[in-house]
Design brief:
Helix content is about 65%, strand content about 10%. The protein is mainly alpha-helical and about 90 residues long. Helix 2 runs antiparallel to helix 4 and helix 3 crosses helix 4. Keywords: Oxidoreductase.
């Protein structure tokens, strides 16, 4: 699979190399997501809620690390990135 580099816009440092997916690979990923919907829908509301709350807790537990990643990827101030992470967690 092809990959492309992600650089810190402030320093030019290489942060990561990530997949550069073709249209066919994107379509396959979408198909897998659609296939996963039926088992998800088969879970009870309580089970889905438990999963979403766990995701929420994990975001909060790792909010500092996530904010550092956002800052490195986008060059935004760390405080703004931290607020963005907390804002995203609020949607779960």
């Amino acid at each position: 699979m092809k990959r492309f580099a992600v650089f810190n816009p402030s320093t030019g440092d290489l942060l990561a190399e990530v997949p550069d997916m073709s249209a066919e690979e994107v379509s396959a990923a979408i198909d897998k997501a659609h296939a996963a919907q039926a088992p998800w829908a088969g879970l009870t509301a309580r089970a889905r809620s438990d999963i979403l709350w766990k995701w929420h807790r994990l975001i909060l537990e790792h909010s500092d690390d996530l904010a550092v990643i956002l800052t490195a990827e986008m060059g935004k101030p760390l405080g703004e990135a931290k607020s963005e992470v907390l804002y995203a967690a609020a949607y779960l």
